[in-house]
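User: I'm curious what two different proteins look like when written out as structure tokens. Can you demonstrate?

Assistant: Sure. I'll show them one after the other, since each token string lines up with its own sequence. Here's the first protein:
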Amino acid sequence: MSDRIGAPGTGLSRREFLAATGGVGTAALAGCQAPTSQANTRPNQSSTTPNSTAPDLPLTSPPEVVNVDEQGGKVTLKTQPAIHEAHPLESMGGPVKLPRVWAFQADDRAPSVPGPIIRTTEGEDMEVTLDNTDGMRSHTVHFHGVRKAWKDDGVPTTTGITVDPGETHTYTIPANVPGTHYYHCHFQTHRHIDMGMYGIFRVDPEGYEEADKEYFMTVKDWDSRLNRMMAGEDVTYSPRNRNPDVFTVNGKVAPRTLHPEDGSPMIVEQGDTVRVHWVNGGYMSHPLHIHNHRFQRVEKDGGVIPEAARYDMDVCNVAPAERHTVEFTADADPGIYLMHCHKVSHVMNGNFYPGGMLSGVVYKEVMNTDIFKQLMQYAGYEQ
């Protein structure tokens, strides 16, 4: 477990968080079902097969940052069938659960959805081994952004390379385009991304200077019928008739997104410079809005935006596979401010509002307040 609190990046340490909150904590209640959209009816438990429960499968963990430079420029990715709890409690329209995902697992770490945040430095070559020796399906890995050899593109149709069950394959990925990028399985892409096989790839430029607080956030839309069908439920799904009903930030829906360890709150202190790397891992565009803060977009798909072209904004539309890096100063009245998709139906758990694709900017200065304690209760934070 990481010692950092909040979204993946450079949040507070656990000790700093507990000191700021005064040790706030509540007990959590486990949940078990995904929400139902107005257009779809979920079958009841009696219509599922025994495979739908799959008690032997692991639960996913939050995505971790994997610094490949510290591992000699090498990382191994395995795929692991898992159960993904986007929000395990009954609060705010929950529980929300994807009973089957295919999670990426880096080295000996826990499987996660999104996959691990793979981080390296400009000028380094990275060896990524896709280990499918225990797999049941064929997979590949495709990295956006960087320029690589044809055979390392990760597309089976055009390279002839597929990593079948029982096989491993090593890709050489040069870190020659600095910025925030995206990786995903490119075998039967329309299903494998929707089963959870996607993540962030970050190449720090030479001499990179981090902001006071720096966070990574992947947003995604899901049609839970696919995940339920793969778990053995009696439900039909077609990518031609996709109807998303779950909307996540780093794999979680609100209020679980505000959980300091399982979720992705952006924890700041007054005067911090804050840098947020947004990645869209889904198939719909999401206009992301931060309350009470004006930010500037400084990178797009790894390309640096010249200062003369930057301007203050508070909504940034992130299309599928796009990466936007924004910066702002934590100069508002210390409080708790939402970060959410402004397609308001995406900020729901089933028919319950608010929920879904919503997180927040949380000032350390207000972590000892009653309203913060209430939010932690909704999120299920347990000290």
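Here's a second, unrelated protein for contrast:
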Amino acid sequence: MLIGVPKEIKNNENRVGLTPAGVSEFVKYGHEVYVQATAGEGSGFADAEYEQAGATILATIEEVYEKAEMIVKVKEPIAQEYPLIKENQLLFTYFHFASGEELTHAMIERKAVCLAYETVELSNRALPLLIPMSEVAGRMAPQEGAKYLEKPLKGRGILLGGVPGVKPAEVLVLGAGIVGTQAAKIAAGLGAQVTVMDINLNRLRELDDFMPKNVTTQYSNEYNIRAAVKTADLIIGAVLIPGAKAPHLITRDMLKTMKPGTVLVDVAVDQGGCIETCKPTTHEDPTYIIDDIVHYCVANMPGAVPYTSTLALTNATLPYALKLASQGWRVACLLNEDLRLGLNVVNGKVVYKGVADAWGLELTDVNQVLNENTMFEESTFMTV
């Protein structure tokens, strides 16, 4: 298969879809890889490293899209990429369609095959391609929150861990999944007093067993959230409903009950955000203030640490990408339920319920799409 790796052009996105090591694996299995010039520079990988691994360097993004049968990216295509996408071209990347109506309609119109990292799902409901970036974003959230709590950045002027004789900051984490767990761990390590809320009591029991004593757990409901936001200095939104919009747990009216200079970090922003006043921001202009409350809502937080993020992401995506390349997307998805759940939009049809529900679109059974015109011999594809 012909694999294309374009340079990410979203604002301040320095990650890249494939490392030189990943290119080497594709080449080993007989695939051709085309990498846009300087695509890996932001993550610390030079064009020469890709060439040594067996890739062909192409000068422009247009050439990459034109050549490739499968595009391997990090973030969803943006408007200037839409015309470059070809019918039946496979795009393997983060999409977050439930928070992007324009993107959804564009991919339907282009009749591309959109396989989203964030909805590839294991039988135990784990999200293997979302976990690495959730780990990065979760660990970054207290770090960014601590920075914006500083007075010159319009925060309360409070040190997260306090000092002897001075109480530490109070951190509220909404959600006890991967992001929330990592956020609580780092905030606690910095010395803050942390409260983690979730509706999954079994998960709260697990956290209670291994978290340090400065982390407490509490059942999540509106009453408890309204009480907690009044004393919190930093609130981290870490809610995820796979493939669907996040619910608004922090509403606009709650802002007036918070202390001026409180910082909100909404890690769920790329799924619509769990804070009603959230809107996507960039690393270039990361915060805004409403009712004296600092909002940090960067939609690609891991893009600020691209070397770590790119390596972590490729570790997770490469085995799946190799299956798609060696078996073809249709066969790979028929044989692998994890990948089948990653299909969101296929040849103009929405095949993922969360996306259809978000925008009131017709849902097509993914199995119907997979079995359309499917004829293959097991001997015609490679096992990876």
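A detail about the second structure: The mean pLDDT is 94.
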